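Researcher: Quick one. four chains, 382 residues in total.
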Amino acid sequence: MSTSSDDLRSIALTEFANAGYAGTSLHRIADLAGLSKSSVLYHFSSKETLLEAAVAPAIRRMGEILDALEAESLTPERRRAFLVEFVDFILQYRREVHMFINQGPSLVDVPVIDRGNELVVRLADYFAANTTSVEEKMRFGIALGGAAYMLCIQESHGLEAAPVDETRAALINILTELLAPMGPSPENRAR
Amino acid sequence: MSTSSDDLRSIALTEFANAGYAGTSLHRIADLAGLSKSSVLYHFSSKETLLEAAVAPAIRRMGEILDALEAESLTPERRRAFLVEFVDFILQYRREVHMFINQGPSLVDVPVIDRGNELVVRLADYFAANTTSVEEKMRFGIALGGAAYMLCIQESHGLEAAPVDETRAALINILTELLAPMGPSPENRAR
DNA sequence: ACAGTTCCTGACCGATCGGTCAGTTAGCGT
DNA sequence: ACGCTAACTGACCGATCGGTCAGGAACTGT
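Model:
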């Protein structure tokens, strides 16, 4: 089957994440793929379609994770399950997450990006409803945002890449610790 | 004195942070300032000059913070002083930090951005030299990156803005906790 | 050998980009 | 009244952007 489409999707995703959607031309994507700009537009009818194809799988997966989170009550077990799912998610979809962190707000009115932004809002709303103090909300934002940002900058700045297993374990540890005080009982958050 | 230059700097900074440097045209900046594109180029000889003027103060301040950090040994007091300086820095220069997080790697060969990227590397190297395990390094990245990201997304997605004092206090608390295990003694990082 | 489909290409289009330049307006010192 | 300068503008430039279109090469089934 046509492997060109998949190549283009991957190349475009990398470039969109690193140089930005506006900063990446179809010509450049074509060059990196060893094709002409016309060929890119043969596989994807527009630049926006290419963007959509690039991030759609990640958005679908994130929707699943959120559905599972909202389906049950927030028990400690459920919270830990979400945490592991989230860490694996950003590990698997680094580039997509990178794109979203950087350009989600600026790429409004692109349908697939809007769907992704809605997911972010859903996630924020969910934890806003399950947290009380400002510090708790920020704790949550720093954990999730920081974890995602950490992986992005790590390959973006080309820093030393630790083994995936070790990275995964460290992430789960840190996030568990950061979000530990959060829970149904309101008095367990002592300063 | 000419307030137009300052207006343009501020407007450009906001747009660069939100829509990206490549995604912001001089025409749009001019419109937002109520001027013509030619007038923008009268005050700043090029788009790059405008970018430079916009982020220069933040980079200068960050350089000072790093100088102070590297001048002394990393005592607990020094670490806390750095932490407070860092929190105040990202609170004061939100938009610049936002720009850097998102587009620092993609805007290479712009001199002022390169200087900023060097600062990031300096900071990373410094803490890489003062940390041992992978988890410690990640803890550091999540803390600093997450704190910066949190403030960006908060005004970028237009979420509820907590009072500055409360935000500041919460940030300092969380970062202190996250970086607490780090220090000269190697055995204080128990799992 | 023929037609059909897939994949790909160069030439071309209008729009927009950053940037240049000649010229206009307004204020200020003399 | 005069000239000087700072602030600003519209017209224009080459380059590049995303996208269209007619057509060529390669592979298929018949």
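Chain B has nine helices and no strands.
Researcher: Thanks, that's what I needed.
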